[in-house]
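Review form for a predicted model. The reviewer records the input and the model, then writes brief findings.
Reviewer: anonymous (R2)
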Amino acid sequence: MLLAAGEGVVIYPVVVVDVDGINCRELLDTGAGSSYASAALVKRLGKQPSRMEHKRIDMMMCSTNQKIYQYDVKISSIVGDFNMAASVSKVDRSVLLTIPNPRYADKIHQYPHLQGLFMNDEDNKPELPIHSILGANEYSRIKTDRKPQIGKAGEPVAELTSLDGQLCRLEKKHKWGAFISPEPRPLITSSCAV
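Model under review:
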């Protein structure tokens, strides 16, 4: 997963995960106090909320009280060799956000310190939909003690997590191996059509 930016372009920390049997892109947000799921993802899950909370949301000109629905989910690596339980808050949007496609293969080819890394997201669309955000609490559970691959200042950084790292096979020379998925499954699209 690529985490840093270069030349004014941000490469967001995104990993493709399985959320209760549905593949989707998940943004890792170490500044978020909670984890979130799009309304489209929640609908595809077909689950009832595990609980509901009332939260006061303060904005510039006003405040509002909102009902926040929580869902218990299992987030897994694509090959299923790592999983964890998490609680996500439903956001009433079909897509949480879209990010510019970083074209991972191009970045890996461009930066020598990323050689040997292969991202399991080869989508060619110009914009990629994000249907889940993993907050700081869950991020602390997937962080590994493996050192990140760091290049020069301003170049992308690759960091291994339990969600994508289990897809990663280490070669004898301790280079990062290829992400492998035994049977590719379609990603959730911005319209959740698959």
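Findings: Helices lie at 39-45, 104-110, 136-142, 162-165.
Further findings: The longest strand covers residues 63-76.
Recommendation: see findings above.
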